[in-house]
Structures are given as C-alpha cells and as structure tokens.
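Figure-free illustration: sequence to structure, shown twice.
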Amino acid sequence: MADPQEVLSRRVQSALGAAFGPEYADTDPVIRPSQFADYQANAALALAKRLGRKPREVSAAIMEHLDVSDVCSAVEVSGPGFVNLTLRDDWISERTRALLDDERLGVPAQDRLVIPIDYSAPNVAKEMHVGHLRTTVVGDSLARTLEFLGHDVIRQNHIGDWGTPFGMLIEHLLEVGEDSPEAGLLTTDPNAFYQAARTKFDASGPEEDGFAARARRRVVALQGGDEETLRLWRGLVELSKVYFNKVYAKLGVTLTDDDLAGESTYNAMLAEVCDDLEAKGIAEISEGALCAFLEGFTGREDKPVPLIVRKSDGGYGYATTDLATIRHRVDDLKADRVLYVVGAPQAMHFKMVWAAARKAGWLPDSVEVTHVQIGNVLGSDGKILRTRSGAPVRLMALLDEAIERAAAVVRENRPDLPAEEQAAIARQVGIGAVKYADLSVAHDTEYTFDFDRMLALTGNTGPYLQYAQARIRSIFRKGGLSPERARADIAIGHEAERALALKLLEFGAVVAQVGDLLQPHRLSTYLFELAQSLTAFYEHCPVLSAATEAERESRLTLIALALRVLVQGLDLLGVEAPEHM
C-alpha cells in the first residue's frame, strides 16, 4: 500500500474510532494534499455538528489517538480544525523505492468483475467520422484501465450491420460486381459506395423491376433468412471490417474482429423479447405498435412517453435490440457491470431500456449498468465539428492530417533523425495528440478541436507528456546508462525531490479512481501534474552532474521510476511513448 492518502486515511479512521467510538471508525476523513503540509485531514469539520463540539476540539481529540509517528514528522491542528500531516522523508524514500519492485507500480488489483464495454459502434458501409472518435478513444482507455485493475473486460463493438438500408446496398453490390473497384470502395471510401446506392434508390421509379422495388424485396429476403442474400450481406460486412481495422490500426485501439457484436447478433432474439414483455404486461399495443409505458417517463402535459419495442409495421427498432443486448450481456456473458460508451443524447433512451429490462427481471439490481456519456467535438465556431460543406469530418482524414502536422514539427525539431524514424515519431505524436486532447477533458463535456493546441509541446497536451518521458530516456542515453538498471536507494534532500516522489506515490490511487468513476481525464490530469513535477525537479536537482555519486544514483532511480509511471499511464490512455522527441 504505497498511496499516502490511503495510509493516512486508515490511521485517521482508527483514531476516530478510538476517540469517539467504533461507529465513527468508518467516517471518511477526507485526506487531501495541502499547501501548508503534505496532506490535510478534514474530518473534524464534518463531525463537529454530529458530536455537538467545536471543530478544533474534535481535531485535538483525533490527535490524542492518532498514531502516525512512523509515517509523519509533524502533525498539527490549523485553521478552523484541519489536521495537517507532514510525512517523514525516510518514509517517502522507502515507499517510493519500493515501487521499483512492484510491477503494478502501486496500482491495486481489484476484485475481479466481468465488465462488457459497448463502444465505437460504426455502421457498415459508412465512413467513420469525428463523432466516432470519442466513444472509441474513451471506451478503449476504460477497457485498458479496467483490465489493468484485474477485471475481465469484454469489448462489445455494437456495429450497425442490419436494417432496411442493406436492401439497397446489396442490390448496388450486385450491379457493380462483388470484385469490382466500386465494391473495393467499401474498404477505402465507404461513403462513396453508400451514396451511389442511395442515389440509385432515390432516382428509381415505382416500376416493379426498378432498383427501389428490388431493394425493398431484398430487405424482406434478408430478414427472412434467404441464404444468397445473407451471403451478399456477409460480403458487405467483411469489406467494411477491412476499413474498420484500418482506422483502428491507425488510431491504435485494442478492438479486433473478435469484439464485433453488431445489431445482427440479436436478430433472432427480438421476437422473443417482444413476446416476453407483452406476456409480463410490461408492453401493450398502442396505435398498432407494441409499447412499454414506464413509470417516471413523461413528456409534455405529463403524457407518458412510450418505449416502442415493435413498430406498427412489425419492424424492430433500437429499443428492441438494446433490450436483447442487455439480456444477453447479463444471461450469457455473466456481467457484473455493463458500460455503454455512447453519445450523451442517448441518455433517455438507455434509461428507458434499462427500466424496462429491470422490470422484466432481465437486469437484476446486482448488475451495475452505466451510460458513459460522450460529449460533442466542436469546431472553432463553437458548433459540432463539420467540413465546410456541412458534412461530418471523416475520421481517417482527420487522423492523416494530425500525422502530417506532427511530421512537420518533428522534421523541424529533429532533423538529425532518419526519415523513417521521423515518420514513426510523427505517427505516435499526431495520433497521441488527438487522443490525449479527447481524454484530457471530462468525457461528458464538449471540447474544441484545435490542431495547434493539441500538438503544442507545452501545456496539458499529449506531446508534452510524450516529451517528458522521452527526456528521461535522453538523460540515460547521455549518461550511457539503462533506466532498468537504476535501482539505488532514493534520498529526499530537496523539496523538488520530495514533490516528485509524493506525486509518484499517488499513481495507484488515481488509476483505481479512474476505474471506479470511469473518468480517464483524472489520469490525464495526474500525468500532466507528474510532468510538471519533473520540470521543477530538473530546475533544482541536477541528475548526471549531481554533487555526489550517491545523489546522482538516487536521482537516476527517481526519474527511472517516473519513466515507468509515465509510460504505463500513457499506455492506459492508449497513447504511445516515443523513444525520441
């Protein structure tokens, strides 16, 4: 247990129990970093009213029973009743050095849960656009983090691979030929293929043998399980998978074909979902459609808002599929916790689906289900980021531009590197900049897409953090040393050393908090603060030119540990760590 806040929290809780009785031993003492000491306990302010005593009296009682002499060099009451705690230098040194022998760097291994995560979810035969960026990046970071915490993460890429548009797509594929260059567009420019099919459909007349009529009949054949139609449909999906994988490879996310769990997966379950809801009295026929009217969901004039589980024409919608999805994830995947990393506008939809599923008994109270709401990406005009023509920005084009811009920066800053290495760094920096800009803000808020800010080497950016770890590597190269062999005792002699060591000790608690709260931006903030601590450390604490050999070895060990934490933290965000910058 390396995190100082956790150590101090337990000690203060023990003192609370000893001072005021066992019923107070589980009180949250709220241990926070302080400008007056290393940490500050705020328990007295919360307890004063309950106990009918003054806060400073409560703090004094806590101190009488607080045993931290092996951890703290000073403990004092300040202000209205804060307990200020200053850690011992030798305690910080020992705990920081111990992290070197911990492959988990202080990150706790949590009790294993089965956690399906629904994220990314592009559509077959359509280009992935900037709207898919955040759900993919945030979902991937959460998957990485929860796996590192010891959970069984099941990635669920709920692609749009079923429905009425596939009638026209299949007919268009038949007309152009399955091996034609036009069919190949599905792997490079899916929108072009889709638009060509749509244009034919819209221009087609009412004639029986026309394109639109054939497309409608093809939908019926697809839904009816016609084998030839299903073969053509599978071909469309396979070609789109090639395109998806190109995007995922460039973006550096962990999704694979094995993680695909598209809408078609649940097609055979939809009729049963409707029948069960109707049999249980949860859904009823209203204006020809099968609807669930759930308590607490009303619209204008307090009229109940229906969850439509079967349309009046007999077709199924998103609600039906999502009900089958949650049923499958609970019954078949044995989920303990289910995450949906999906746009914020879907919040009401998911609340209604989960309410219906709980009422039906498909979603027990023991299973936690969470909508990780994703905010919009904005342009410089404050509106949703689009091209000049008003179309959504193509994700692949955006990533290519990020790499091109990063390449210009790398060529200017590192002309000494071979062109091949410059290109590799440009990809790492460009993609890292885009991903970090997304992950550095709360996932449910909007942010403005700005290449100049994202690619800056200063400020809270991906390149700044990548440079922080690359600079450590550079120090070791300059000294002819390997970071892995730096294993000396760590001595705390300067305030900057102390601040850096304390920040390193916080890593495990921050990662655990990200897993609990599902907020990757907390890890981004931590890594930025760690990089700032490193900058301050370099200003005051020479490493290779330290005054003594012991001081030199201590500082090398401290920055070697910082390198491991930075690289591990960036990896949990899905950001690569270049050797050179």
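We now fold a second protein in the same way, so the two outputs can be compared directly.
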Amino acid sequence: MVIVDKTSVGPFLRLHPADTVMVARTAVAAGTRLPDIDLTVLTDVPAGHKIAATDIASGQVITKYNTVIGFAKTDIARGTHVHDHNMEFRDFARDYAFGRDYQPIALLPEHQRATFNGIVRADGRVATRNYIGVVSTVNCSATVVKRIADWFTPERLAAFPGVDGVIPLTHVLGCSMEMTGEPMDLLRRTLAGYIRHPNLAAVVLVGLGCERNQITELLTAEGLQAGQRLRTLVMQELGGTRKSVEAGIAAVTALLPEANRVTRQPVAVRHLTIGLQCGGSDGFSSITANPALGAAVDILTRHGGTAILSETPEIYGVEHTLTRRAVTPAVGEALLERVLWWKNDYSAGRDVQINGRVSPGNNAGGLANIIEKSLGSSMKGGTGPLMAVYRYAQPVTATGLVFMDTPGYDPVSATGQVAGGANLIAFTTGRGSCFGAKPAPSLKLATNTPMYQRLEEDMDVNCGEILDGTATIDSMGQTIFERLLAVASGEATKSESLGIGDNEFVPWQIGILG
C-alpha cells in the first residue's frame, strides 16, 4: 500500500484526497470551524477518531487511505463523527490479482549493507541474546520449570556475565489433547522452534512422565537429540518435585560455563529476522508507528534481512494489498487460503474480530471495525514483495517480507514468530501494550506522544513525532532501523529492563481438550 502525503485541515488529517473521512489529531469540540474547507464540526470528535469530510449517503462506502473501511448505516452529514454507531462492517469484493504488482527487492550492494554485533553459534546461525531455557513438555511440569529458572538470580549469575539469564518456557498444554494431528504437531513444532532458537545457548527440557506429549516422541517427531546443548528430565523418574528441581538446577549449572563463552562480532543484517506485532492499536496506528515500521522493514529487506508479518485476522479486508505483491501467484493464493480458513472454518459464527468487532481499547482509540484495524496493521510490512507464507511456528527460511499465519493475540502470535526464528520483535502500540518476549528482545513503538509520555518506562520509540510534525515516516523508519541494530547488538529494550518476557511464551491452543 502506497502512503500518500497527508494534508492538515485544522485539527484534522486528510490521509488521501479521495477519502470520505478525516482523522482528528486531538479531541475536537462540536462547533469548531474549519474555514479552509468551509466546514463546521457538528459533533464532538475524540482524538484518533474520524469525521465525515463530505456528505455520505446511507449504504455508501466510507474510505480512509482511499481504501474501503465500512459502509454508512444511515445518511451521515458532513462534519459528523464517524464510528461504529453510524458505520457498519460488511464484506465486499476484492481484486486479489495474485502477483500482478510484484517487484523484486532492490538489494543494496554487499559492501553497502549494514552490520550488527551478533553472537555466532557453531552452526553459523546468529543470536541477538544468550539465554539458557528451561522448557516444559506439559503444564504438569511448569512449576518445576519456574522454580529451576527462579533459582538463578542475578547474584547467582554474576559469575557468568555472558549469559543474559535463565528463562522458564511453560504453557498450559501437553496432555488431555489429541495425540496426533495438527494440535500436537503445532505444539511440538513450537517447542522445537524454541529449543533450536539461536538465542538459547542451551535448554533443559522437563516432562512429568505420563503426559501425552512425551519427551521421546517430541524429540523423534522434531528430529532433536538430547546431548550437551539439550538435557532432559522426567519428574516421575527422578522422584518428584523437589528432586526434579534439584536435578534441573544441577543441569543448568553444568551448562553455564560453556554458555558463558561467547563474544559478539560484526555480522551482516541478513542474519536478522524481525517479528512484526501491533497491539492496543488506535486511530493513529496507520498514520505513525505502523507505516514508520513499514519504512524500517523496507530498509531492512534492502540490506538482506527478513521481517515476519502475522496476525491473520488483522489483515482481513486488505489482504488483497499483499496478494498483489506476492513473488508468485502460489504465494498469494497461500495467503488467501489462510484468510479464508479463518473466516469460513475456524471463526465462522464466532464473536471475534475477523467477523467485525475489535477490542474495547481499539474501539475507544478510534478503530470502528477489523477492516479499519487491518488497514493499519498491514502497513507494518512495508511496500516490498511478499516472498513466502508459513503456517504457525514453521521455520522461516525465505528472506525479505514473509507472512506467518497466527492469531491476533500478541503473546500467541509472537510465540509463533520466535519459534519460526525471529530474533527480534518490533511492536507498535497506540493504547500502550506493555509487552516483552524472551528470548527475543522487543522494541516498543508508540503511535502518539501523550501515550509515550505517560508510559515512557515501557516505550522505546515515540513515533508520535510524525503526528507532531517533528519527524517524517521515512526519518522515523531510519530511526527504528538503527534502534533495531542497536538492540540486536545487545542494547537493552525497555521491556528487558523491566524483566518482562517470562510469561509471554503462549503456544496456540488450537485443538480440543478432553
């Protein structure tokens, strides 16, 4: 999607000359005059919300960025607040034009490409962090996993400055679920993605012993082998909770000296894979942080890096802007197949956002429905070609912009991206999502200055400067790219400084429990 220059009209922004609505930069009171266009605001309009820029007849399309975001429920007079009280969600025909607009990435010459200081593993993969992970096969071993990880306080790790921490990776699954098929495959693929992740120097895998997700079957299914980097413990064989905690502490202690023997060195940006997330979105997301992150992604991919766009329900309604840029028709068709599965199979008849309703926070921030939210969400991927489509937690092997099928729930979505190989997360937010992920550091991008100032302890970059007029989308994209390189080189993010990330490992619970 091409972002045209926005035009200021008093306290409003017109995002495209053909739009039927404008967006309020600040709260605007009824009676406010806009002499430049001879318009009087008829109703109070909260910041981030829309006003009718023209009379809109009942049933007529409502457009933002010259893209359909809904239909008028009734006649809407020019100057009226436009939101879900007078705009309705409907499906509409879209031209998917698979691959029609594909243009290859204009890669920079090798000598011009950026580098960052990464940790090169023995197999050549590159880490941005250096953790030891303690992983549960089943919820029944989650307490033991947490107690093992909790034992390794900063004081106890002080002798190992090269290790960023010992992290628990627990979940609610692993038993009373289907023994075979997609739910178990998905869980095992997710666990294996973390076990293999370059940001984990070593892993201790803890099972109960009688669960359906048996350690031996997990290792066999995913082609993993226990050894120096992967230790396994079974609670029922070790004698219970206390003895398992002791055995886990001993296992991690034995792994620390080798994990500590790391150094950072300059490596090419092609070793960066960034998971793109947005949560707590608002009416400014599509104006500031999301297109700015998209500009950073365009820079990243020209330098040879990879970005993972996800949250399938949050591209619904604008998926045709991605299918048109697909490297092949098959890639575009794969994306559409995932969208239709969500719409027609997985979510049919359910009160979820792909069927129209967004969260209360999104709604209060100015987003009336999922299509309007998707309009902003898709911008995180930039303007380059779509190179591949992956199922949840599949290993990402393509470079450039790719798509991974995930839910819109941020912890679940980010978990799939990290399992697929993301070694950084870039997370935009308008309402103020306080998110972090381990072992992949998360850079938080605020859409507006008031929220950034209110939650500055959690936010890394203030993209509200675009709205304030002190930065452009392109300049902010460059700022984000440079911050990503700094974080990849070891600079701590705000969420890392706050210790966030121990509870954000949430594999997709897709199957039936019984």
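Summary for the second example: The chain has a mean pLDDT of 96.
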